[in-house]
Amino acid sequence: MLRTLCKSVLYGVAALSFATAAATTPANADEEFILAHAMNTDHVFHAISERFMSELGEESGVSIEYHPGGDLGDWTSLFEQSMQGVVPMTLTWASSDFDPRLDLIYLGYIVSNWEEAKELYGPGAGMLDVYNDMLGDLGLHAVGIIPTDFGSVVIRKGVGELPLNFPDDPGGMKIRVPGLAIAVDRFNSFGFAAVPIPLSEVHTALQLGTVDARSFSTAVETYTLRDVLEANILTNDYFEVAFWLVNKDWWDGLTDEVRNALQRAADGTIEWSWQEAERKSDEFLQRARDAGINVVELTDEQMSAAKQIVYDNEWPAMEATVGKDIMDQIRGVVGVE
């Protein structure tokens, strides 16, 4: 009941904010709406949002009320608010609470480098249509797929151990994972003890020793947590992409002129975002090194062992969820039999 009440209050605040924006928007604007995401201004989401608003330009007749940093809710809340139309546009991740097929976006070792990632997820690659078939059932539409970074494992200060050989080395080390079944299963199979913890509580959990490690950490997030970390192990076990989501009813109800203007600006921004995301990854990984974090690469043998665990356990389970056709398409790109 408390969770429902909090959500209701949050939605009410967002709706009031939207109404206020509409009241103060110039009279010649064709459309006014909220664009929100949950990440801070160091994150690529912020750079993408600013680039999008610049690409759109004042001549488009569109007025955007921009909310970075999660002031309208965390990433799961924004996913749900977009489903309900409270926040018409958001940059966020797939929430499989609403459709288990969306866990496909978190599939382990689907790509190994930025070139392969763009081949699978980049403009015109075809995966956007696959995901929109799923998202449409939730009242959502993705105008694009946003690259973020490869996710890795970080170790808190004071642990002094580097679990590099899976599944033997971790020895049941407690590791934070997001609240996703696929994440829990992966890191349990890697030999850790997976503990689902919300993103907003990760810093405290590492600081207090509730967990000794964190999974799904991109370079910018590693740098953000630098005061509590001693090592970053580049497992690169998944490539993090996010969705540029809109509420489908809202999107379909726009005039052709406005919708086309928004899509053109989004397309141009997404094409630019691939270079920007890779640049930010390199930049923040170096900043983490400069801050004293030990950045460790797995050897070819260690990486192959980790990949095999995922291919043997996680991929068959995913095929049972999303179907053979989709998985065969991915296997063709990745080169996995």
Indicate the topology.
Elements: H1 2-24, E1 31-37, H2 44-56, E2 62-67, H3 75-84, E3 89-92, H4 114-121, H5 127-135, E4 140-156, E5 174-177, H6 181-189, E6 193-196, H7 202-208, E7 213-217, H8 219-224, E8 229-247, H9 248-253, H10 256-290, E9 294-297, H11 300-322, H12 324-334
Parallel strand pairs: 1-2, 1-3, 5-6, 5-7, 8-9
Antiparallel strand pairs: 3-8, 4-7, 4-8
Describe the structure.
The protein is an alpha/beta fold and 337 residues long. The protein has two domains: 2-148 and 241-283, Bacterial extracellular solute-binding protein, family 7 (D-Maltodextrin-Binding Protein, domain 2, 3-Layer(aba) Sandwich), CATH 3.40.190; 152-238 and 292-334, 3-Layer(aba) Sandwich (D-Maltodextrin-Binding Protein, domain 2), CATH 3.40.190. Helix content is 47%, strand content 21%. The protein has twelve helices and nine strands. It has helices spanning 2-24, 44-56, 75-84, 114-121, 127-135, 181-189, 202-208, 219-224, 248-253, 256-290, 300-322, 324-334, and strands at residues 31-37, 62-67, 89-92, 140-156, 174-177, 193-196, 213-217, 229-247, 294-297. Strands 1, 2, 3, 4, 5, 6, 7, 8 and 9 form a nine-stranded mixed β-sheet that branches. Helix 2 packs antiparallel against helix 10 (256-290), helix 6 packs antiparallel against helix 11 and helix 11 (300-322) packs antiparallel against helix 12. The longest helix is centred in the C-terminal third of the chain and has 35 residues, at 256-290.
